[in-house]
Every structure is written in C-alpha cells, then in structure tokens.
Amino acid sequence: MSQVPLFASSLEPYHDRLVEAVERVTRSGRYILGPEVAAFEEEFARYIGVGHCVGVANGTDALTIALRAVGVGPGDEVVMPSFTFYATAEAALVLGAEPVYCDVDPETFCVTRDTVEAALTPRTKAIVPVDLFGNVAPGVELRELGVPVVEDAAQAAGAALDGRKAGTLGDAATFSFFPSKNLPGLGDGGAIVTDDGELAERMRILRFHGSKDKVTFTDVGWNSRLDELQAAALRVLLPELDGWVDRRRAVAETYERLGLGEHVALPRATEGARPAYHLYVVRSERELPIGRGYYRTPVHRQPAIGSAAELPGTEEAARTNWALPMGTDLTEEHVRQVVDSVAGS
Ligand SMILES: Cc1ncc(COP(=O)(O)O)c(C=O)c1O
Known about the structure:
Oligomer: single chain
Bound molecules: pyridoxal-5'-phosphate
Low-confidence stretches: none
Mean pLDDT: 97
Strand order of the largest sheet: 1-9-8-5
Shape: globular
C-alpha cells in the first residue's frame, strides 16, 4: 500500500470554480489592488471577526509590515519563540530589530505568559506569539503585558481560543496563504488583520512603497500586495475553511479513537484552544516510520542567528515533535494505516 501523504488535502473538488475565478480576473484586466482584493479583504476581516484586513504578498511580509506599523525599528527588541518557522525572526531582523527568543511549553509548542514575561526588557517594542501547527498561543494574556502583540497566525487560519478566532488575540495578526496552509492560495499570499483603523491605514501605505495615493511618498515601504488572481482564488476557498477545519479536527479525533495515544504523546491544545491542526504533531523520543520532525534546529541555533539563549522547552520540542499525516482528504482507513505503522515500529 502506498504511504499516506503528510499533507493530505486536494483542491480537485474546487477546480472548476477556481478556473472560473481566474478567468474572471484575466478578462477584467485588473491585476493589482482591484475589486477582488478589496472584496477578499472585507470577507476575510468578517470571517476573522475584525474591522480591517490588508492583503499582502506573503506571510513573511505580513509580519514585517505589521511589526513596522506597530513601531518596531532598528535596535528595538521583539520577543518571540525560537521554535517556529524562520520567517518569524526574519521579519524582525530585516527591520534592524533584535529578536529576543523566549521559551515554549514543549507540550503545546507555544509561548506562555511566563516565558514571554521573562524575556521582556525596557527595549521590548513588540511580542510575536506564534500559533504553531494550528494550536493557539495565549495572545489575550500577552496583551496585558503592555507591549504591542502581533500574532503570527500563519499556521492557524480557522483555529480559535475561548470562542475567539485566531487572529483576534493581539493588536494585529498575520496570515500566510502558502499552498500547504489551512486556507491555501494558488501561490504566495498573505494578510494582516487588525481592529485598529489607524494601524490598518499605516499597513496599507507600507504595502505600497510608503504612499497613500501612489503619487506622494511619505515613507519607505515595500511593494507587497496580494494580487487579484490570488484574491479571487481565496474568495472561492474561504467559505470552505470552517468545513475543512472540522474535517481536520475529525481526523485528530480518529487518531485518538484508533489508539495512537498508546504509542506516542498526542497533541495537547493550549487551555481553551480549538486547534485547526495545520499539522498533526505528536511527541515521541524516537523517529517514526511515517511523517517527519519539524524545526529540528530551532531559529536561535540557525547559522545566520547563532544566539546563546538557553531554551530547554524549545530544545525538547525540537527533539521530540513529529508530524503525522493530516489533511481534509484523510479517511479512517488512512488514519488506521498510520496508527498501525506507528504501532508496528
Ligand atoms: C509560523 C510561520 N510564520 C510565517 C510564515 C511565512 O509565511 P510565507 O511563507 O507566506 O511568507 C510561515 C510560513 O511558512 C509560518 O509557518
């Protein structure tokens, strides 16, 4: 039997509607910052439950622009986990800011209020909790620390914490629509969401070269827009997101029901979280026959960073995490195959 894929989600059922959307854009002749992006921004803001959405070119730019917009600049410290995708740190580094790596809970893979608080200094300009693997970091608690919180929700579209969607927990939140993400585009794409109208306006200016009207340039920004083709595709797929998250959660329940927990430690949600399972990540001291470990070299130990931070929770998470197949298309039979293969190893 062929091996179950790690990312098991297909866009095949949406093919015709995606082609229609692409055709609509190509016939319109509007490719950049037109009606599709405006409509998607409104629809995504409504879905998340915030006042504003700014579409940008990818999730990395989303973080960079959000951090700049909340006031992060050269020499400022930004507290963030090291157990994350490299882009989280890169977003601060390209601004000349200094990431200060805080530890994670090795069971939830997320920062906690205590680990963040321990890393704060008078130079801290922002905190970036990461909703890793579709679990949700405790963003609301972090807002009480008095520093702007930019939630990196790249992996958590459709997740929730205490009844609030991931993306509403900080002063702003960023998403990636990279094709493997919970809400995929047909290429790169990203978005920033916020309830703060002034912040949203700053982000709109920053995504267009530091200009509000494309004539007068009041800042130095980026050329970073979500394009019309991506927005049109995302508008087709956004209404599917909640159903997909339900499917992912059903797959997680099937893993549990079929006894995976007898062989490895099952994913643990942060308190009050309803994870979206971008990835289904268990903990195991040994390599498993299917899937793979993520972020084995955490950001603070990457060659470009080389930080001496001591982060025992991060080291444990990096050593023991193991992603098993997850996706909207996994059947009970697939899950059984994975559980049998883990059990027999
Ligand atoms: C946690 C996290 N942050 C940021 C990003 C960056 O998103 P993108 O690849 O769209 O630039 C990713 C994407 O892989 C991610 O997983």
